[in-house]
């Protein structure tokens, strides 16, 4: 068995594993950011829904006459 080839193969596997871990961390960070954005969007929507339930007649229709 060739020790040099084995060493190179193990080194390449280690680098590939480091790349995989880095990519996974990046995906997890991006997912967290998207989750925070969705939470903010839903919070805004729930406030609007509460306003509509308290005063449903305001802002629900537009009367346009020429």
Structure description:
- The model has no long low-confidence stretch (mean pLDDT 82).
- The longest helix has 52 residues, at 3-54.
- The chain has 66 residues and is mainly alpha-helical.
- The protein contains one helix and no strands.
- The protein starts with a helix and ends in a 12-residue tail after the last helix.
- 79% of the residues lie in helices and 0% in strands.
- This is YjfB family protein.
- InterPro entries: YjfB_motility.
- It holds the Pfam family YjfB_motility.
Summarize the structure.
Pfam families: YjfB_motility. 79% of the residues lie in helices and 0% in strands. It is mainly α and 66 residues long.
Percent of residues in β-strands: under 5%
Low-confidence stretches: none
Indicate the mean pLDDT.
Answer: 82
Element string (H = helix, E = strand): H
Number of separate helices: 1
**What class, by secondary structure content?**
mainly alpha
Largest sheet: none
**Molecular shape:** rod-shaped
Specify the helix fraction band. over 70%
How far the N terminus sits from the C terminus, by CA atoms, comes to: 91 Å
| Total number of strands | 0
Radius of gyration: 28 Å
Organism: Salipaludibacillus agaradhaerens (Bacillus agaradhaerens)
Protein name: YjfB family protein
Pfam families: YjfB_motility
What key attributes describe this structure?
66 residues; mainly alpha; 1 helix; 79% helix; 0% strand; rod-shaped
């Amino acid at each position: 068995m060739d020790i040099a080839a084995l060493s190179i193969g193990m080194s390449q596997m280690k680098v590939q594993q480091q790349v995989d871990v880095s990519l996974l961390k990046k995906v997890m960070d991006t997912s967290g950011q998207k989750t925070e954005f969705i939470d903010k969007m839903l919070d805004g929507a729930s406030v609007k829904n509460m306003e509509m339930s308290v005063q449903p007649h305001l802002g629900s229709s537009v009367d346009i006459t020429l």
